[in-house]
Each structure stands twice: as C-alpha cells, then as structure tokens.
TrEMBL record:
UniProt entry keywords in alphabetical sequence: Isomerase
GO molecular function per UniProt: chorismate mutase activity
Protein name from the UniProt record: Chorismate mutase
Keyword Cell inner membrane attributed: no
Domain Chorismate mutase: 11-100
Pfam families: CM_2
GO biological process: chorismate metabolic process; salicylic acid biosynthetic process
PANTHER family in the record: CHORISMATE MUTASE (PTHR38041)
InterPro entries membership: Chorismate_II_sf (IPR036263), Chorismate_mutase-related (IPR051331), CM_dom_sf (IPR036979), CM_II_prokaryot (IPR002701)
C-alpha cells in the first residue's frame, strides 16, 4: 500500500490553483479507497476478537496507531491525528456493528 501513497507524495507541490485542486481530488480518491478498505479490516478484526465493538476497544492499540501516524505526518501532530483517528475508528466500528446486525 505504501507505493501508491509514495507516488502521490513524491510529487512537487502544484504551482496553480487548478493543479492544486486536481491533486487534492486525487488524494481524496485515494483516501476514500483506503478508508473503505480500513473499514473492511475493522469489520474483520471485530469478527476475530473475543469482545467486539466499544467494549473491545483497545486504548493502547489506538495510541500506537496515532503515534505511528504522527511519525509519518509530523506536521499534523499527535493531537490532531488522535482526533482524526478517533473519528475513523468510531465510524468504522459503527459500520462493522451495523454490518454484524444485518447478518444476524
């Protein structure tokens, strides 16, 4: 998965507004695909864990995720990434729980 991301981030910053907007659109498309895939992974984790959903949340694991992301995106900082990843995790868990409820 790092190859497509590296290809996007290795490019120089665009020089014009239309180019910058096109680059944002490309990054947003990649983010959407990655978030969709991550949501599927979250659902799989919920199936594999003995206790799922909110009860199965692991604050140490979530802190690990944020720390790793902060190393990769230092300009965003740990606190901002914590807020972003909390939203991603909560929404992914919600989706997984809704999926589990519809398959019961």
């Amino acid at each position: 998965m790092d190859q497509p991301v590296a290809a996007l981030t290795a490019r120089p910053l665009p020089a014009s507004l239309p180019e910058a907007r096109a680059a944002i659109d490309e990054v947003d498309a990649a983010l959407a695909a990655l978030l969709e895939y991550r949501a599927g992974l979250t659902e799989q984790v919920q199936l594999l864990k003995p206790v799922g959903g909110t009860a199965g949340r692991d604050p140490d694991r979530e802190a690990e995720i944020v720390a790793g992301m902060a190393r990769r995106a230092p300009r965003l900082g740990a606190e901002r990434l914590r807020r972003i990843m909390t939203a991603v995790i909560e929404e992914s868990l919600d989706l997984a729980e809704r999926g589990a409820a519809t398959t019961r």
